[in-house]
Write a structure and sequence with these properties.
Layout: H1 2-22, H2 26-38, E1 49-51, E2 74-77, H3 79-82, H4 86-94, H5 110-125, H6 128-139, H7 146-158, H8 172-178, E3 180-182, E4 185-187, H9 192-200, E5 204-212, E6 220-228, E7 231-240, H10 244-257, E8 262-267, E9 270-284, E10 288-297
GO molecular function, one term: lyase activity
EC number: 4.6.1.-
Domain EndoU: 25-299
């Protein structure tokens, strides 16, 4: 009798877990995104970041591969102010750990693996944005503790899989935050800090933009055309002026609650969508899927 009761309880709890996941409504996600927007105290101010978008092209002309902008996108970045913040420095430390070409296996030293842990600690454990995301995930029954969430984030974002030639050459983090070269073109690349760094180093040439979000302060969203190390990106969308924890939290929220779908958010009363993709060719844990990509969807 006790065994039957225990089994019934287990089935009931599993059912509750499934119902909990299903009861995360679009309005709850929008409310949380507004709260995370308000909590982004590390975002750039107008005095810390000045951009020069220049030429706006229609969607029909995003593939012309013409450099229509004579000046860089980033006119001024106050590195001393922004990049000294713990989450910015934690992200910057990761940006030289990867091979941009797919088909080349990624191999990390113990120090580089520690940088991944540092990034997760700084963005999730040590910011209001990360703590609020954790509180939401725990309250909805998706994770039992913040440490469990962080471990899952580490696997879904930093876990390696193969995009080319059977090599363990890619991850959701590399694809989204750094970008890759695959099939003769740029794949991924959805982070403004990486964009600025590569443009500053002379490795990226900004061509034009096809979308500029309705926000008049940071974070904003741009859809950009550019050439990276000789390879073209037709539309690379990214938040601009946001903190690393803001990008990471919104992408993670959308991937966990709306994997592989459009995730509808609200920032400052203005609507936007995040598109995520699952990586379906391999998995981790009990059949969980790695992140394939995540980015702001532009019309």
């Amino acid at each position: 009798m006790k065994l039957i009761l225990l089994l019934s309880l287990g089935v009931s709890l599993l059912a509750q877990g499934r119902r909990t996941r299903q009861t995360i409504s679009d309005s709850e996600i929008k409310d949380l995104s507004e709260l995370l927007y308000e909590l982004d105290i590390n975002k750039a101010s107008s005095s810390e970041l000045v951009i020069d978008p220049q030429i706006l092209v229609p969607d029909s002309e995003t593939n012309t591969q013409k450099d229509l902008s004579s000046r860089p996108l980033f006119k001024y970045v106050d590195e001393a102010s922004l990049f000294s913040k713990p989450t910015f420095s934690a992200l910057l430390a990761l940006l030289d750990n990867y091979q941009k070409q797919t088909g080349q296996a990624e191999n990390f030293s113990s120090a580089q693996l520690a940088e991944q842990d540092k990034f997760l600690q700084e963005t999730i454990s040590n910011t209001g944005i990360g703590r609020e995301l954790s509180t939401f995930m725990l309250r909805k029954g998706l994770y039992g503790s913040q440490s469990e969430l962080i471990q899952d984030l580490k696997m879904m974002w930093f876990g390696l899989y193969t995009r080319s030639k059977g090599k363990m050459d890619s991850s959701g983090f590399e694809h989204t935050f750094l970008g890759e070269i695959k099939g003769g073109k740029v794949s991924g690349f959805h982070n403004w800090i990486r964009f600025y760094q590569q443009e500053k180093n002379g490795e990226l040439n900004y061509y034009s933009h096809s979308f500029d979000g309705p926000w008049t302060s940071y974070p904003d969203i741009l859809g950009m055309q550019f050439n990276w190390d000789g390879y073209f990106k037709q539309v690379g969308s990214a938040f601009v002026g946001s903190s690393p924890e803001f990008d990471f939290a919104l992408y993670s929220l959308c991937y966990i609650t709306r994997p592989g779908k459009r995730c509808r958010l609200s920032l400052g009363g203005k609507a936007l969508s995040i598109q995520t993709y699952t990586w379906d060719n391999s998995s981790y844990g009990d059949g969980k899927k790695f992140i394939g990509s995540a980015y702001p969807a532009t019309p």
